[in-house]
Amino acid sequence: LQAPSRRWQLSVQRLSLSLLVLQNSVLVMVMHHSRNAPTNSQPRYLASTAVLLVEVIKLLASLALATHDTCRSHPSASLSAVAIHLYHSVFARDSWKLIVPAALYTLQNSLVYTAISNLDAVTFQVTYQLKILTTVLFSILLLGRSITLRQWLALILLTLGVALVQVSGTLTSDDWLERLSSLIRGGTLPTSSAFKGLMAVVAASLTSGLTCVYFEKLVKDSMGSVSLWTRNVQLSFFSLFPALFIGVLWQDGAAIARNGFFAGYNPVVWLTIGLQALGGLIVAVCITYADNVAKNFAASLSIVVSYAATAIIFRTPLTLHATGGAAVVLLAMYLFNGRPAPRMVLLPVNQDG
Ligand code: C5P
């Protein structure tokens, strides 16, 4: 496979990070709504079925993109030759390496559903920012990256800035602290539910950091020989097994037999599934053309963007907290990169240009 030019890489990098900001801005709200809106006595849809469908959609999309890549690099090949080529690259000898990230991502995707079903959107989004720190830690441990004191400071500022924007969205910080401590003490929500949600989001953050870093290493180590979309076909293919056998059949088999696979599905659920599948594909591009830290910065920036959009659309006044929080997030990006544009990239080593 031909290595793409540096300029093309930078364009893909910027586009994918911007798309991730947009996708993230709407996903959490839509997903929260899909889990928590009243269902008119219908059973709520099962998260395991959504996790499986997201993987099926990503598998089909990645397969289409991998086919497109193969046709482009072998323009005179027949359709059957392309199919054979794809089969051999997907089931290549090193494809087993995707089994671990596939299992971990499936677990993470289920944990996110558990978290979002048991916590309010604010608490979920703030706590899920923990993945910024876990990603950096695993990048240091597994990729041997180093991080300067200034960048550590930037990460702490980023976490604080996001928390500030978030808490001012619906609550004041005093309300929020009170709410969090009462959550931990089991006040506003039943203890088991809140505790379950918090544990789920902490576990999802850990899984996110570990899995993204592992996937980044895998893709960048084999860049030039295995395409990103082939890797994604492998990832989704291996994800189908835990999603189907552990999630759908083992965990929810009885409920599905009783109410059907699509019980509780409505347009919002389908929108959640579509947005998640799209998000997975965008994340794959961000990890490859930028890196995981950049991906998480984009996710944090989306919190600022969704807050600003809400303020503009619903004409809610901007609070001091939120504006200060947004400024802190931008300052963190500046400190991390040395300049404000999203330049927090570590391009793969074997590139031209
Ligand atoms: O929150 P985080 O950024 O870790 O979420 C990553 C999401 O992207 C997961 O839902 C995962 O399934 C998806 N993903 C993907 N393909 C990749 C990497 C991640 O679908 N190559």
From TrEMBL:
Claim: tRNA-binding is one of the keywords in the record: no
Coiled-coil parts of chain: none
Location relative to the cell: Membrane
InterPro entries, sorted: EmrE-like (IPR037185), Nuc_sug_transpt (IPR007271)
SUPFAM superfamilies linked to this entry: Multidrug resistance efflux transporter EmrE
Bilayer topology annotation: Multi-pass membrane protein
GO-annotated cellular components: Golgi membrane
Keyword annotations: Membrane, Transmembrane, Transmembrane helix
NCBIfam families: nst (TIGR00803)
Protein name: Nucleotide-sugar transporter
Taxonomic lineage of the native organism: Eukaryota, Fungi, Dikarya, Ascomycota, Pezizomycotina
